[in-house]
Amino acid sequence: KKALTDIRQKKIADIMSKPVITISPDDDIESAAQKMLEKKIDRLCVTENNRLVGIITREDIVWSLGGDKDA
């Protein structure tokens, strides 16, 4: 019960990952995979002109190796 009470008092800023690791939509998949490995993370924020335009995950990269994930 105490854990539930504690979590209700926390803000997103208390538990979020930081700093934000970003990549450009123009970067290649190999660069994204390398950055994820180096930083030991599973996803990257994709930004363009300092605006979030998407998120790429390890799963997205795996799917890209096997073909179209939306097929």
Notes on the protein architecture:
With 71 residues, the chain is of the alpha+beta class. It is 45% helix and 21% strand. Strands 1-2-3 form a 3-stranded mixed beta sheet. The longest helix has 11 residues, at 29-39. The chain starts with a helix and ends in a 5-residue tail after the last helix.
SSE blueprint:
Elements lengths: L1 H8 L2 H4 L6 E2 L5 H11 L3 E6 L2 E7 H9 L5
Parallel strand pairs: 1-2
Antiparallel strand pairs: 2-3
Strand content: 15-25%
**Spans of 5+ residues with little confidence (pLDDT < 50)?**
none
* Biggest β-sheet description: 3 strands, mixed
Number of helices: 4
**Helix-strand pattern:** HHEHEEH
- In order across it, which strands form the biggest sheet? 1-2-3
Task: Summarize the amount of helix as a percent range.
Answer: 40-55%
Count the E strands: 3
Q: CA-to-CA gap between the ends?
A: 45 Å
Class of secondary structure makeup: alpha+beta
Q: If you average the pLDDT, what whole number results? A: 89
The coarse overall form would be elongated
What Rg is obtained from the alpha carbons, in whole angstroms? 16 Å
